[in-house]
Amino acid sequence: MDSNRSRKRPRTGAFKKGSLKRIKLENFMTYKKAEVVAKPSLNVILGPNGTGKSSLVCALCLGLAGRPKLLGRADNLRDYVLRGKKGGSVEVTISGGGEERDKTIRRELNSKDNTSTWTIDEKPATMAEVEKLKDRMNIQLDNLCQFLPQDRVVEFARLSPTDLLLETEKAIGNSRLCEQHKELMELGKASRLQRQNMAAIEKELAKAKQSQEHNGQDVENYELRQSLFETIEAAKAKKQWAEVHEREMRLEESREKLEAAKRAVANAADKEEKALKSIAPLKADKVLYMKENDSTRKQCESGACAIKRLGNHASEQVAELKGHAEGLENGEEDSQKVCEKIKSKEDALAKATEQLKSLGQVSPQYKTNMDRLRVLVSDSNTKARCYQRDMGLVEQELSQAIRHCNAIQDKLKRLNDIKFQRIRYLEHRRPAFRGLLQAYEWVQKNQHLFRSHVYGPLCAEVVVADKQIAACLEGTVPLHVWTYFVTQTREDSDKLRSCLRDHMRNGGSVLCYNDDSTAPLHPPNQATAIPEFGIAHTLDEVFEAPNAVKQVLNSDAAISRCYIGTRETQECLEELLQCRHDVSRVCTPDEIVSVKVSRYGGGVRSTIHRATPQPAFLTLSSGGDEVDRLRNDLLKAQQVMRDLQEQQAEHEKDYRQAKQSLDAAKKEKNELTNKEQKRSEQCKKLKIQIKTHERVLRKLRKRNSPKGEGSECEQALEAGMGDYLREVRHGMAKIMHWWPVYEEHAAAALRLAECSMKLTESTNSATSMKIDKKRHQRIHNQIVHIVRSDERKLRESEKDAEHDFPLSQELEAKFRELPDDDEDLEDFIEETQMQANGIVCANPAAAQRYRANLQTISRLEKELREQSVQLQDLEAMIATRKDEWLPDLRKVVEKINKTFSRNFAKIGCAGEVRLAGEDQYTDQYDKYAVEILVKFREEEDLEPLDATRQSGGERSVATMLYLISLQDVTETPFRVVDEINQGMDANNERKVFNQLVESASLPGTPQCFLITPKLLPNLSYSDSVTVHTLFNGPNIESVGALEASEQLEKLCGCRIRKAIPV
Which of 106, 336, 512, 782 would be a feasible disulfide site paired with 91, CB 3.0-4.6 Å? Predict the structure, then answer.
């Protein structure tokens, strides 16, 4: 469809923000290609039935992201594409109102897959962006007061007064009144529900209080007995808190001892430090004194040697002088004796000479044997060293082989360990589980660091004997749960989590389970066996694990609600699930069946069947191929080790043989050497004897006579005495020369001894101080352990006391009334217990009801107070919202009523718009309504507009005039009304049209599209009215259509937009 601008009169007026400027269609419903150029005021779209007027409404709705159901026509997008075409398009241009640029929205429809694509100003967009733009322009396609297509005219006429009020509020401004109204409706509903709840609570509270009046003496006995029991509990609490106080005193004493031990350790450390500091200078002094002593000692030794030589020489001179003196004394002895002496000496000389000859020289055989033995010793020594070196090399290789064998055996041991296999499988299964084995080994080594036993990972704590059970467990428990470490105290949990974070990159999750691990896994009313269907156990009963581990698995995977079935169970599975609705999971040899119940409807159940998986890690027994490979490696390593041991044994044997040869050669060599040394020593002795005999013989032979000999001896004696005196004086001079050196050496030795003594004393003192410090440190460590133990016991006592008897002012007041001594307190508890046991409650049920009623009354009174406060807050909020909403709504309705009444008066009838429900339903805001009252005849009164009193034409007139009246209060950019004038008589239609033209001519009124198949002749038009005539059909000629439209424009006096098919 094409539109051409009129050339006769210029157009006036401006487009409001959000109004429509152009609608362009292609392959849409009955149009191959069409375009409508709208004007800012009243646009009348005129055309016979079947020309596609309502198609423009459909295009406008779909082009602005409206839902197809708003049209009351087809729901699928493909139904709006021209038949036989693959796709169509709608393009809508929206005015920016001068505030911003115009927006062009284009929607491409695809009939093949029933989808569409969007563009805004030729840029790709989404439906959400189009809806956001539509909301910003205040376009409300779901509001019948703004967008009234042909197929929903009847729906608008049937709107109830309450719905009409909501639709009117939506059309006003930014829908603020509608939102406030809906909020008030919700608040009013909540207020009524609150009052109903309070009434029910008050009724229940009165009933509970009334029942308290029928208890009598039993209640009094019960109260007395309860009072005694409370006193007993207070006495027990005091006793337990007294134990806590005693532990606090004990801890304080231990801490005082600890401080004293710390001071003792510090003092011992100071003393040791002082002793150690005194040792260093003494050591330095001792080194200096030792050097000084060594220097003087060497000088003294030199002097001693010189003096010794002088002494020896003097001794020789003395001996010689003694000989001369003896010679003088014996000078007169008989010459015969001298001859005898000469003869004796000659015989002795001859004998010694003969013996020396018999000993002879070193034999050549000795040299040969010694050379042979030297070579033999050298060769044997070389061989022994070679064998020893080879033994060392073999020993190193053997040590490496032994370590290699031990490493392989460790690996085999770990691979044969089921726990290791399971953990390693999980590590390889997911990267997030890496480090799990390292964490497990760390926990096993450091169990002593925790207060209670740490379990985990859970895969290592489970013992499964059957493959089906293992498969059920792996199929039921999530994989990450098997990596949990379970602690039994919060302190252990924090410590383990910190250690794993510090030492390992990953290492699994830590879960603290500090509940009762012996608690039953099954509820009291749950059956663990269903024999009629072949079920004998639940999953938690068919494997072994610590109680805490089972509790964790049950909390994460509900193993106590998983039933283990047989093939018999599998055959009657459907019957089982129909008969037993409490069964949610069944494991059979072939499949695992899970039953899911809808959250939104308890009757909706779905069954999920999946094949039972093969067990992956709970049935692992060994490492498979890797174990075989390691066993082969172990056999090879053991063979290498045996070979090395054999080599080592051979080298040891060769070494022993070489050692024996070396020892034998050395022994023989030593024997030869000793023999030669003996011969040499004998020769030296004989030579000395020969020289001595010769010297004596020479002296004896010099004696010619006794007289001559005496003279010679006398002369020799005098000469010797002179020499001896000179030597003595020389010796004395030497002694005086070396005397200061001896004195210095004595002083140095004395200083060294004194320093050594002081050093020994300091060293002994430091050692003693070190021992003393260690003793104090040991005592300190013992006291530290005692303090930690006392702190732990105090924490446990405080925790138990806080758990059993939390302190309060009331309890402390009771403590002051009770005995302080432990024995008196025990006697008091025993006496009070006997007194309480002596009170008999004749009707225990009455006492129980009384206690229950007290709790009920307390709870209901608390609920009533809370509900009252909530109701007050709610009513205050309702009053605030009502003050914000109702005055504005009254003004709007009053303004609509004024315009509506004026418009009805102009057509000769009476009409009124009222706000109903304000007086009858003060807080029922969902019953507030807008009533339209009309009177079309003089003899009638104002009556509400409905389908039973007025005709269809009258309802159309009232609806159209109400829509016109909304223009004064609405801020919608445009309004679409499709064939609203159908059913009106000519008179009313003319009057309504005049009203529509008049309102469209007013400034500030929204753009309006009136779609109709016909118009009455001689209607009144203005420049604000634009008539779009549709000429669409297979037999319409373009020229005829143009001529007819020009004649129509002349007759009507308004601008006619010509439209012909393309």
Answer: 106
